[in-house]
Specification:
Blueprint (H helix, E strand, L loop, with lengths): L3 E5 L5 E4 L11 E8 L2 E9 L6 E8 L10 E4 L12 E8 L2 E8 L11 E7 L7 E2 L7 E3 L2 E3 L17 E10 L2 E11 L5 E11 L10 E8 L9 E5 L4 E8 L7 E7 L6 E6 L7 E6 L6 E2 L6 E9 L2 E8 L1 E5 L4 E2 L23 E4 L4 E4 L3 E3 L2 E4 L5 E3 L5 E3 L6 E4 L2 E4 L3 E9 L2 E10 L12 E6 L3 E5 L6 E2 L2 E5 L4 E4 L8 E4 L5 E3 L4 E4 L4 E9 L2 E10 L2
Parallel strand pairs: 17-22, 20-26, 28-36, 38-46
Antiparallel strand pairs: 1-25, 2-24, 3-4, 4-5, 5-6, 7-8, 8-9, 9-10, 11-12, 13-14, 14-15, 15-16, 17-18, 18-19, 19-20, 21-23, 23-24, 27-30, 29-34, 30-31, 32-35, 33-34, 35-36, 37-40, 39-44, 40-41, 42-45, 43-44, 45-46
């Protein structure tokens, strides 16, 4: 009979991040930690800038996590794309010579970060540049030009847009199978809310493995919004998948909760850790090797964010150990955590550029028009500085635009990215050139195209699921948005199988009583597409 996994924290750990003195906010949450070839590498969700909610920072340690390299931003949103608002909740593995980084994002910024989807990017180097999965390949390639590409979700949230959605991924590779864990937070057709961690698997022997992702079911039902997302490793000693999360997050009674699984598909809670953990903790991460495996004798680390002021959090790092237990459940219930105040770090001296960004993040101009690029660089305290002297531009289509100093000019109708480099950091900026008579004003919202986000939906009748069908509306001024009936009443729905599903005016789909297939035609402004909805059990 297999032993159960018991995690032990020998001490109170140490802070590896805290906001600088005088800052009223700052964080590095949801760490993804990799220990490989004696090097400890870590990726964190950090604040973004100028309308982007979060970026990923990276740093590494060669002495077991005692000291760290200067951090830098390694992944940002791609403007004018499905992840334009943020990259949150990093999940990193190393396989086949690539770092793969999973993340969360949404286009629904006005809803406070709802309707999230999960994405993935890859790079040969930990610091990037990363190319994003675009739905049919990695990045965008045009001759000698190599660009990030417009990302497509690998997990798309197809339920009511007002709900939190899907994301917070975690990756484990075992026997060339990728196990992907992700949160799914929504409501059922009867209005009841639910919080779960789901699991999908993919074939890592294929370069296009995101296209092979197969949903495998619910790994665990989580206790409301109290129980945080999973970070999962495979423990070779015990032949078990082990997940760490926080529970009673953001409260004085917060803890680390440990789950385990024999097959990687269904998990149960086996351990609670309060001793030596900081109160008010949330968004934890546990180290593994490149495949996110652990074994006895490894350097094993875990970390989480904590603090009693929203958005002003430290990041606590612990060494940990584990042992196999015969007991079915081990708990520190009733024992105290550590009520710890946050001690700010001093300002770094000297400062260095952790990122360079552009305002705006995408440039739209007509043929013959010129615009001066507005670039900023940021230090680790997120103070902003103008970036002009020493900026270089490269990796762009010279037939679409020309560059003179800091000024770009539209030369031909088309789209290109352009790399702007400053102080060792680079930002990739989309530039779109339109015909000379195009009205690019913000109120020119005539719909000139309407297209699906996905074309197939599965309605799980056993779970009383509630789906919503939305599409992408393209507007005359070059912008676009994901819309449905309750985000734009001009969208209508026609259902060819009302005995299978019911579709209301807002695009909400519920089970009508007969399992089978329905085809829904979605119309807006004279444009239309059809999706297939399958109602059944799985």
């Amino acid at each position: 009979m297999k032993k159960h996994f018991r995690l032990r924290l020998p001490d109170e750990g140490c802070d590896i991040y805290a906001p600088c003195e005088g800052m009223t906010w700052g964080y590095r949450y949801g760490p993804s930690i990799m220990v490989r070839d004696g090097i400890c590498e870590a990726w964190f969700a950090s604040p973004g800038a100028e309308g982007e909610a979060d970026w990923f920072t990276y740093k590494k340690s060669t002495d077991g996590g005692r000291t760290w390299s200067p951090e830098v931003v390694v992944l940002m949103p791609t403007a004018d794309s499905m992840d334009w608002f943020s990259v949150c909740d990093p999940a990193v593995i190393f396989h086949g010579g690539y770092y793969y980084i999973g993340y969360t994002s949404t286009v629904f910024s006005h809803g406070g970060g709802v309707c999230n989807n999960a994405f993935v990017a890859r790079s040969r180097n930990a610091e990037g540049p990363y190319e994003k999965w675009t739905g049919d390949g990695w990045g965008e390639h045009r001759g000698d030009l190599h660009w990030t590409g417009k990302p497509a979700p690998i997990v798309y949230f197809d339920e009511p847009w007002q709900r939190w959605g899907a994301g917070e991924p975690s990756f484990v590779v075992k026997d060339d199978v990728l196990y992907m864990y992700f949160t799914w937070t929504s409501t059922r057709a009867d209005g009841s809310a639910y919080h779960m961690t789901r699991v999908a698997t993919a074939d890592m022997t294929r370069e296009d493995w995101p296209a092979t992702l197969e949903y495998r079911g619910v790994a665990v039902m989580r206790s409301g919004g109290s129980n945080d997302s999973f970070d999962v490793v495979y423990c070779e000693d015990l032949d078990k998948f082990v997940a760490i999360s926080t529970d009673k997050r953001f409260t004085a009674d917060s803890m680390l909760a440990i789950y385990e699984s024999d097959d990687g598909l269904t998990f149960r809670r086996v351990n609670e850790i309060r001793v030596n953990t900081s109160w008010m903790c949330h968004n934890s991460g546990i180290s593994g090797d490149g495949l996110h495996h652990i074994r006895s004798g490894d350097l094993m680390l875990l970390a989480y964010a904590y603090g009693d002021q929203w958005g002003k959090w430290g990041t606590r790092l612990h060494r940990y150990d584990f042992e196999g237990m015969d007991e079915d459940f081990y708990s520190e219930t009733g024992l105290p955590n550590v009520s710890r105040g946050l001690t700010c770090f001093p300002d770094p001296d000297p400062v260095w550029p952790i990122a360079v960004t552009s305002v705006p993040h995408v440039y739209r101009l007509r043929i013959g028009e010129s615009v001066k690029m507005n670039l900023l660089w940021l230090d680790t305290c997120y103070r902003r500085y103008p970036a002009e002297d020493g900026v270089t531009f490269s990796n762009y289509d010279a037939s679409v635009l020309s560059v003179d100093g800091m000024t770009v000019r539209g030369e031909r109708v088309g789209a290109t990215y352009i790399d702007a480099a400053y102080g060792g950091r680079t930002v990739q900026i989309p530039v779109i050139v339109y015909p000379a008579d195009t009205d690019l004003s913000g109120d020119n919202r005539k719909v000139v195209g309407f297209r699906p986000v996905v074309t197939e939906y599965f309605l799980n009748t056993a779970e009383n699921e509630l789906k919503q069908i939305r599409g992408i509306a393209d507007y005359a001024n070059g912008t676009w948005f994901e819309i449905g009936g309750d985000t734009d009443p001009a969208v209508t729905y026609e259902n060819d199988a009302p005995d299978v599903v019911h579709v209301d005016a807002n695009g909400y789909v519920t089970f009508a009583g007969k399992e089978g297939e329905a085809h829904i035609t979605v119309r807006c402004a004279g444009f239309a597409f059809t999706v297939r909805v399958t109602a059944g059990t799985r």
